[in-house]
From TrEMBL:
One of its GO terms (molecular function) is hydrolase activity. Gene3D superfamilies: 3.30.230.10, P-loop containing nucleotide triphosphate hydrolases. GO terms for biological process: recombinational repair. Residues 82-236 form the RecA family profile domain. This is RecA family profile 1 domain-containing protein. Transmembrane segments: none annotated. CDD domains: RadA_SMS_N (cd01121). InterPro entries: AAA+_ATPase, DNA_repair_RadA, P-loop_NTPase, RecA_ATP-bd, Ribosomal_Su5_D2-typ_SF, Ribsml_uS5_D2-typ_fold_subgr, Rubredoxin_2. Keywords: ATP-binding, DNA damage, DNA repair, DNA-binding, Hydrolase, Metal-binding, Nucleotide-binding, Stress response, Zinc, Zinc-finger.
Length: 475
């Protein structure tokens, strides 16, 4: 009988398609050397992930009918629909999620090894289990395929997590995980990580393209049917992309990426994809011994210590205000001009072409003779200045160093510089100015065209038409 006969198939490690025989390349994606031999087991068992998990969701086709969008909106409580996360840490996470955690959503969190992905989700799990606004116990299931439950508990103890409704489970079998989730009926599920789990009956080793895709699809179907949000941890490749097929990012609802320098204690959480909110938002955290802590004033990361306004060490420093999503950041830009050396420019954190343009405009339109100077430009804390709102601060820092005249404490610069030396408007100028006012800054230099309309309480607004007026007003 052929019923229990095993057969071998060749699976493309790039696109996941299967072949009955070996070829030198994959005919579907065109990649060479990606076909690997796998034993597909019983012919009867070699089924798709959809069939494997069919038993978890009864087929109630008769009850599943199209519904008017108005009826759906009427029965939803838009205010309390999302699951809110309390505290400073929770505020940072739900800002990136778009205002809270959506029931039934599938969230993928990626990042470099050791950046804090597991710590982030363990703290999120603790917050969700402690949030009992509904009056019912908020059970949360944390599943790990990489650590034992004792190791997770030890990390939770270090993070001072004492909630009684956080359940730990160590398994790599998706069917077992979903079985336990059905019994427990948790408020949320965390799976760490998607590259360590597998589905029985699906060809491919753990972490292969086919397994990752089918496991993610199984968890997606479970999340949508049960309205239980599911978090997935995703490993990254050497290039920084999330490991696995590109379709993984299409399957999930939200893709978050956690980043941070090894030399810095600060971590940034960005949304690469978000079906329920903006992808422009940014969450800022500080990694402490007790875990991640939300940073309410991120500008402290990018500003160095100012000792006194009389110190000559302040020459060559200027403060810019940049936007990342809806948040305004204050960053410090430093410049150093060395006279009598061969001309050369070294920039860090600013586009080289942008820095060359700003320096050329200073020489041509403001009349400063920078030709015989070696110029260094640096953005504090490794921040990369990608928008034009920091142009004026770069120019002010260069002028300050060249003129050996410190910029007074409490002064910030917001403007784009044109080739004619004119100062131009930048987006969300009012929000940037309001941020400066809240942080106690005394003076802000902006384009003259905007100064007429803009007024800020407790702070002097200096409107300048071009670079010459800025130099005359500040130095």
């Amino acid at each position: 009988s052929k019923k229990g006969k095993t057969r071998s198939v060749y699976v493309c490690q790039n696109c996941g398609n299967t072949k009955g025989q070996w070829w030198g390349y994959c005919k579907d994606c065109g990649e060479t050397g990606t076909l690997k031999l796998f034993s597909a087991g019983s012919v009867e068992k070699n089924v798709s992930g959809k069939n494997v998990i069919r038993s978890w969701f009864p087929n109630e086709i008769s009850e599943n009918k199209p519904v008017r969008i108005r009826d759906v909106c009427n029965r939803m409580d838009a205010v309390n629909w999302r699951i809110h996360l309390p505290g400073t840490f929770g505020d940072e996470v739900q800002r990136v999620l778009g205002g809270g955690l959506v029931p039934g959503s599938l969230v993928l969190v990626g990042g470099e090894p050791g950046v804090g992905k597991s710590t982030l989700l363990l703290q999120v799990a603790a917050l969700l289990s402690e949030e009992v606004s509904t009056g019912d116990p908020a059970k949360v299931l944390y599943v790990s395929g990489e650590e034992s439950i004792e190791q997770i508990a030890n990390r939770a103890d270090r993070l001072q997590i004492v909630t009684e409704e956080l359940f730990l489970y160590s398994s790599t079998d998706i069917e077992e995980i979903l079985q336990q989730a059905q019994v427990l009926s948790p408020k949320a599920i965390i799976v760490d990580s998607i590259q360590t789990v597998y589905l029985k009956g699906v060809s491919g080793v753990v972490g292969s393209t086919t397994q990752v895709k089918e496991c993610a699809t199984a968890l997606l179907r479970f999340a949508k049917k049960s309205c239980i949000p599911v978090f997935l941890v995703g490993h990254v490749t050497k290039s920084g992309d999330i490991a696995g097929p590109q379709v993984l990012e299409h399957i999930v609802d939200v893709v978050l990426y956690m980043e941070g320098e090894k030399s810095s204690s600060h971590r940034l959480l960005r949304a690469i994809k978000n079906r329920y909110g903006s992808t422009d938002e940014l969450g800022v955290f500080e990694m402490l011994q007790s875990g991640l802590q939300g940073v309410s004033n991120p500008s402290e990361m990018f500003l160095s210590e100012h000792h006194s306004t009389e110190s000559h060490y302040l020459a060559g420093r200027a403060v810019a205000v940049v936007m990342d999503g809806s948040r305004a950041f204050l960053i410090e830009i430093q410049a150093l001009c060395i006279v009598g050396t061969s001309g050369g420019r070294h920039v860090n954190g600013v586009s080289s072409s942008r820095a060359d343009m700003i320096i050329s405009v200073i020489m041509k339109q403001a009349g400063l003779k920078l030709q015989e100077n070696r110029i260094f430009i640096n953005v504090v804390s490794g921040f990369s200045l990608s928008e034009t709102g920091g142009d004026l601060a770069v120019a002010a820092a260069v002028c300050s160093s060249f003129l050996e005249s410190p910029i007074p404490k409490g002064v910030a610069f917001i403007a784009e510089i044109g080739l004619g030396g004119e100062l131009r408007m930048v987006p969300q100028l009012e929000r940037r100015v309001n941020t400066l006012s809240k942080l106690g800054y005394e003076k802000c230099v902006i384009p003259k065209s905007a100064a007429v309309k803009l007024q800020s309480q407790g702070m002097e607004i200096v409107g300048c038409k071009d670079l010459k007026e800025m130099i005359a007003a500040i130095f």
